[in-house]
Write a structure and sequence with these properties.
The structure holds three protein chains of three kinds.
Chain A: H1 3-6, E1 23-34, H2 41-56, E2 65-69, H3 78-85, E3 91-94, H4 101-115, E4 121-127, H5 133-139, H6 143-148, H7 157-172, H8 176-190, H9 204-209, E5 212-214, E6 217-218, E7 227-236, H10 237-242, E8 247-257, H11 271-282, E9 291-293, H12 299-308, H13 317-323, H14 339-343, H15 350-362, E10 376-385, E11 390-400, H16 404-407
Parallel strand pairs in A: 2-3, 2-4, 9-10
Antiparallel strand pairs in A: 1-7, 1-8, 4-7, 5-6, 8-11, 10-11
Helix pairs in contact in A: 8-12, 12-13
Chain B: H1 4-15, E1 18-22, E2 47-55, E3 58-67, E4 75-77, E5 102-109, H2 111-116, E6 121-122, H3 124-134, E7 142-146, H4 156-159, E8 161-162, E9 165-166, E10 170-171, H5 175-183, E11 187-190, H6 208-215, E12 219-222, E13 233-239, E14 249-251, E15 254-259
Parallel strand pairs in B: 5-7, 6-10, 7-11, 11-12
Antiparallel strand pairs in B: 1-15, 2-3, 4-12, 4-14, 5-13, 8-9, 13-15
Chain C: H1 32-40, E1 44-48, E2 54-55, E3 70-74, E4 78-87, H2 93-96, E5 101-108, E6 113-118, E7 127-134, E8 140-146, H3 157-160, E9 170-173, H4 179-190, E10 195-200, H5 208-216, E11 220-224, H6 230-240, E12 246-249, H7 266-292, E13 303-307, H8 320-341, E14 346-352, H9 370-383, E15 387-390, H10 392-403, H11 405-412
Parallel strand pairs in C: 6-8, 9-10, 9-12, 10-11, 12-13, 13-14, 14-15
Antiparallel strand pairs in C: 1-2, 1-3, 4-5, 4-7, 5-6, 7-8
Helix pairs in contact in C: 4-9, 6-7, 7-8, 10-11
Classes of the chains: A alpha/beta, B alpha/beta, C alpha/beta.
Chain lengths: 408, 261, 414
Amino acid sequence: MSMVASAATRAAPAGKRRGYDGVAVTVPVTIPYVRYSTRSAHWWLGRALAELIRGAGIAKGEVDGVCVSSFTLGPDTAVGLMQHLGMSPRWLDHIPMGGASGVVALRRAARAVQAGDAEVIACIAGDTNHVDSFRNTVSQFSRFAQDAVYPYGAGGPNASFALLTDYYMKHYGASREDFGKLCVAQRDNALKNPHALMKKPLTLQQYLDARPITDPIHLFDCVMPCAGAEGYLVMSEERARALKLPYARVRSTIERHNAFPEDPIQFRGGWAMDKDALFDHAGVAPADVDFLETYDDYPVINAMQFEDLGFCAKGEVAGFIRANEFTIDGSFPFNTSGGQLSVGQAGAAGGYLGFVQALRQLTGSAGRTQVKDAKIGVVSGFGMINYDRGLCSGAAILERGATQGEAA
Amino acid sequence: MSNPVLTQFMAELLSGRVKLVDLTQTLTPEFPIIQLPPEFGQAWPFRIEEISRYDERGPAWYWNNFSMSEHTGTHFDAPIHWISGKDQPDNAVDSIPVENFIASACVIDVSAECAENPDFLLTVEYVKAWEQKHGRIPERAWVLMRTDWSKRAMPREYLNMAEDGAHSPGPDAEVVPWLIQERNVHGFGTESVGTDAGQAHHLNPPYPCHYFMHGNNRYGLQCLTNLDLLPPQGAVIFAAPLKIRNGSGSPLRVLALTPTV
Amino acid sequence: MTEPLVKPKKKNPVLRTRLATLPPVPRSRSALGLTRAAAEGVFEMQVCADCGTVQYPPREVCGSCLSEHVAWKPVDNRGELIATTTLRHSNDLYFRERLPWRVGTVKMAAGPSVVAHVHEDCAEGGTVRLTLKLDRSGQAVLHALPEKDTPNMNDAPQLRESTCDPKFRRVLVTDGKSATGMAVARAMLEAGANAVFLGDASTWKTVPAFDKLVASDPRLQVVELDVTDTDSVDRLAASIGGKVEILVNTADYLRDGGILNRKDVNLARDAMEVNVLGLMRLAQAFGPGMCFRAADGSNNAVAWVNILSIHAHAALPARGAWSASKAAALSLSQTLRAELRGAGVRVMNVFPGPVDEEWEQLTPPPKIAPSGLAKAIVKGLQDGVEDVYVGDIAEELRTRLRENHKAVERELGQ
């Protein structure tokens, strides 16, 4: 029997895992997105770092750890960016995990802060979008994609998600109307988010009537590639309080890569392996969650996250969607920024979008997108269609720490 | 010191009273070449490759490489070409005395007979009858057989191949030694692809023109054209082959000087 | 059901000819193992020697047990078509011009799930046959085909992009007068070619079988062509170069003789003139026109066929000069392949064993009938492969060369 086939389909209990006591996540920052940018990724990442420093009210040199995610930074890596930005951090990480980057960056940074390897870590993600960036990124995304996917019509992620959406709809009972309901709700949410690139309302009929892109994917199932950057800071609660910064605490996190390789096609993500560890470690249940920010490059992956994170059982997503409202003031506040589907997908920053929005919710800075009394939020990430499926999954349960007033 | 004969000659030429006739076929890749059984070695046809033509290969000049056999196009046969002439003195194109490159010519018009019979063979009798009409063949003169073969369609009619081989006119086995012994001719020339008839391998000896002419240190010219522009007697032929070391023959420009009146 | 291909209309001469684009080219070196298999027309994937896992996409080490011993082997090509999509948008110019385009996920009986081009006659959820084909870029791609052949299936536009089917195409047979040339012409007509141009280098020679063939079908047209004559080749290209969609170079000069048993290099030079420089002349004259028309409708220019010999790979000393010319032609064909690849015109090399014709009179059987050789050429074009080995002798030598090329060298020299 192969090692792959013998891999556990459910993670071992995480009883001995240490908590994230004393860690604060703070200063949610978004550099407003644009459809196309003539700048390079360095500009966007530099702007995010500057905003973080300004928002925290600290000196540049006080940031002693940096965590970077970007697709368009090449040929530079995080190290090159440090010289570009004149930084001398004692802790540096580069997380090339696409849509899982926001959660994974938190996991790395939180442990570094706990261990004392760094005191203030700036987690930043950003990408530029030149007119031809997207095609270049997609055509050179990975070796497996280059060898075994891109030559098949060069549909990029649309084609990969079309295949798994086709399979999912046939086997798990979700319909276009169900996906449409999520997209419409996200658009409603986006209309309250000044950063969202989509400014017009979307009706279910418009969603259903949209032109097909790659069956069954239609126009409003797709994100719009754009340029932008997101960031947040990780530091000790002590430091956050000293800086009078509102912050969120970390209750639990998970990550998983290349889960369920034996599945003939992706119908579930790594969360299905780790969700019990996630909630057990946090000491909360899905019912306790006030809002959910998922990685939403296509609606099908939202449906999978509902199931695989335990908000409903596998195969019951249609009923779950039909039973809930997903707007900010709905029964299940979801992707309250509007998500990538309505805000735009700024490359690796798309993997930070939900996380930064969750921080806003939990630090009371979400403005018109604020979910009333939000105390517990779940952020999940998903990334890297290396071949035929997304390989990286992650999730974090965050809770409200000190708000502006309390921090003072 | 000018020579009055040459001076006179140039004056005649310039006045047009003596005319130059080009007896040469243009060298082209498609010009037919003698076909031997495929298991024998084969003569190369004319082939040409451009070296440059005012382009990146040579910006201000045009020139070509070409290749062919010694027996391609309008060409000269030296005695060494045939086994019967292999031991003759001065038998190769480089050693033939240059005086031999100029000679007078008799043109025997057999075109009417050839139109009737592509296998027409020139006989002693025919030549004698011709002499009756046009006078005796002088010593050391080229005998050129006008068949109008050069006017035939290339390559099919010209080679005129059938299942039993080529069908084209030539001299018979008696007339060639007769021309040598009785008239001391300089050589024999034809319009077709060889000095011998297409079916000459059936004569005795086979290929009598090659066999006797070269065996007696005489020469051959073939693939001639424009013989119809020459008088039966009185033309002078300039036929100088390339000076190829030990060459058995050579493509060449054959020019005839002929009186216009 | 695939709609049968319609005979293309005469070209509208005032419309711009669409230039060739290529599907994505880059592949990892491991993935070029698929290209090798596709070029040879076999279905192979990497199989772990230690745990038997079939690998896909191609890997450096086994994705299951991490063994480094992953060798290319034939595997079961059946699978279930578990998901499909029809692309109506693509990031790539080549596909944009050919939308809609159907792809799908096939769960192979051999293990892996693969993304493949999906034939229009394949039903989702059904069993499919996977085949490795070269796409227009010359790289391997998987095509999912119906479990059993369906009517006109080769006419499906997606599949036709990976093949060089003579149907409705115009073919130049460079030496149409040889036994092989005549057989190729017949096979092309049978395969539905719109026209066959028969090159004739010896118009002075009457060959009754040739005359009979020419009279048998109005699609046949005799053209003067001597591949040793640059001018002749250029003239023909100027005349019909814009119509040749498949060129089959049947011109061959075969004579016995090695090196020491001959006094001169004339025979070798004649062989080189025909077999090597002839190929080069043809390529220089016809290649550009074929590249220009490489995306010109359903009867676009697609293939260049060289009839080489198994002795292009291993010299037959009794025909040393000829073998050398075939080896040189093989080498030249690789350059030609590289140069035509930019337009997507395929170079197919045919490696027959001895063919039953006059110059092989003394060769003992088995010999390939010219008609058998022609049939293999047509099949190779329909399958879209690059290398075709024809006959038992060619296949045997090919196997023996892989096993011990020194043994082949010694034995051929005896």
